[in-house]
Amino acid sequence: MRSYRQYCGLARALDSVGDRWVLLIVRELLVGPRRYNELLDGLPGIATNLLAERLRELEEIGVITRHGDHTYVLTEWGQGLHDVVYALGRWAAPLMDRPAPHDEFRSHWLSHPIHLLYEGVDRRRPKLSVEVNTGNAPMTIASNAGRVSVMPGKPASPDLVLAGPPDGIVGLLSGRLDRAGAAKRGVSVKGDLRKLAKLRPHRATGAALAT
Amino acid sequence: MRSYRQYCGLARALDSVGDRWVLLIVRELLVGPRRYNELLDGLPGIATNLLAERLRELEEIGVITRHGDHTYVLTEWGQGLHDVVYALGRWAAPLMDRPAPHDEFRSHWLSHPIHLLYEGVDRRRPKLSVEVNTGNAPMTIASNAGRVSVMPGKPASPDLVLAGPPDGIVGLLSGRLDRAGAAKRGVSVKGDLRKLAKLRPHRATGAALAT
DNA sequence: CTGCATCCGGGCCGATACTG
DNA sequence: CAGTATCGGCCCGGATGCAG
What we know:
2 copies of one chain form a homodimer. Chain A is an alpha+beta fold. Chain A is 39% helix and 18% strand. In chain A, the strands form 2 sheets. Chain A has a 5-stranded mixed beta sheet. In chain A, strands 1-3-2 form a 3-stranded antiparallel beta sheet. In chain A, strand 4 (128-134) and strand 5 form a beta hairpin. The longest helix of chain A is centred in the N-terminal third of the chain and has 13 residues, at 48-60. The interface between A and B is large, with 49 and 49 residues.
């Protein structure tokens, strides 16, 4: 990208990561190291040459490194983009009510809104294991020792099984939808939802998503 | 900008404000309402047609509104981009050591790194009035009742007068440069620097900029 | 003078075909 | 699997025109 040529932090940042697709690549790598084809799958719509070019640029400026096994990883500085990506995601929450007609979705993207909803440690959170079936693959939400984590795959013995489109799932997780509202969006629930509500922070910190 | 067509908060955000120049326009409006030509001046390098087009798009999606007196203002939602702009600026701090040869600079941009350095209220901060001469116009940094503010223009009776290139000025303000280091970068100082150091938070919160 | 609109050249982006 | 090569089209940048 052509430089803005301004001595300003924002301009410098955008010179580095303002190119199309760049922050979405970072989004993928925030979850963990990824191989080229995994990135392609997590970035529906990107052209293969663009992905290759962006990865080269990001390596040159020190945002990512390439491991021997053909995986790409964020450097420590690159991980600093976490706050940027989450600030943008939080800001766009009001736009997320419904998926647009041709929107793509990948299950592992769930990890980001979930981390927004359940960030931090809260000892009052019950232990819980939730199977989520939305998008292209099953995911597990696990609450342990006051901390909530998200992983690919099904849990061994889920307390709760959710299935349906991502807006309904997230609406249910955020508390913006109740069981009936989520059902209207095509979400099916097996199990007790009451424990789910207790995962959220008590002092309504997740308000940004709920708006 | 062509939509990413992904049901993801980050993608939605970039669909809205990922276009070239958009976040820089927001940077300008974060300081306050601005007229068209003021924006042109604060955005060196932008083409006039692009500014007009971006302003129209930003109004359509509800990030800005147009006041009767031909000024553009951020909506409440638009002001939410503060966190995005500052997250990007903070992340890019390591790139800000020196201006590049042809970098432009505007004095009022100082307000952003200064708000990063001196955010919040700290009653132990001394009352202080600083005149800063860098860029295209003089600026005033004022510390009152534990809060630091930045305004255009010269103070009536400054305790301290700084002049020189912006990297030296910011280096001095952040504490990353001492008087000698700043002098090497062409900064002249009139007055006592010790009070300046007391403006910074005691628990080294400005570490991001200092790195 | 301010606040844009129009026009045009160049570069970046998107889609697909192809290769080690 | 992990990219490279190519080409059409669109967006951006810069200059200029023009209405209130």
